[in-house]
């Protein structure tokens, strides 16, 4: 689960492009599926994309592992 602040994060000017769902999906493709990997992978990709540690909007990620 994630808030729209993740997908609506912008790259720096002059492009000002949104991170979007496609980049979010790409961040997860190389992930193990473990919650820590999910969160770290998304955060790493966001930082690489925005070049900023600060956020303009709330960004929340909930990652859970379900065991049967």
Termini Cα gap: 20 Å
Total beta-strand segments: 0
3D shape: elongated
SS-based class: mainly alpha
Q: Gyration radius, to the nearest Å? A: 12 Å
Mean pLDDT: 94
Low-confidence stretches: none
Helical residue percent? Answer: 40-55%
- Largest sheet report: none
What percentage of amino acids are in beta strands?
Answer: under 5%
Q: What is the chain-wise order of helices and strands?
A: HHH
- The tally of helices reads 3
List the helices and strands and how they pair.
Elements: H1 4-7, H2 20-29, H3 35-50
Helix pairs in contact: 2-3
Describe it.
The chain is an all-alpha fold and 68 residues long. Helices cover 44% and strands 0% of the residues. The chain contains 3 helices and no strands. The protein has helices at 4-7, 20-29, 35-50. The radius of gyration is 12 Å and the shape is elongated. The two termini are 20 Å apart. The model has no long low-confidence stretch (mean pLDDT 94).
Give the tags.
single chain; 68 residues; 44% helix; 3 helices; mainly alpha; elongated
Brief overview, please?
It contains three helices and no strands. The protein has helices at residues 4-7, 20-29, 35-50. Helix 2 (20-29) crosses helix 3 (35-50).
């Amino acid at each position: 689960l994630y808030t729209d602040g993740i997908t609506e994060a912008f790259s720096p000017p002059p492009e000002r492009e949104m991170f979007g769902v496609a980049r979010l999906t790409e961040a997860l493709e190389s992930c193990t599926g473990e919650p820590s990997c999910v969160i770290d992978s998304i955060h790493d990709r966001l930082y690489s994309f925005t070049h900023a540690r600060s956020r303009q909007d709330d960004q929340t990620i909930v990652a859970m592992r379900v065991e049967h």
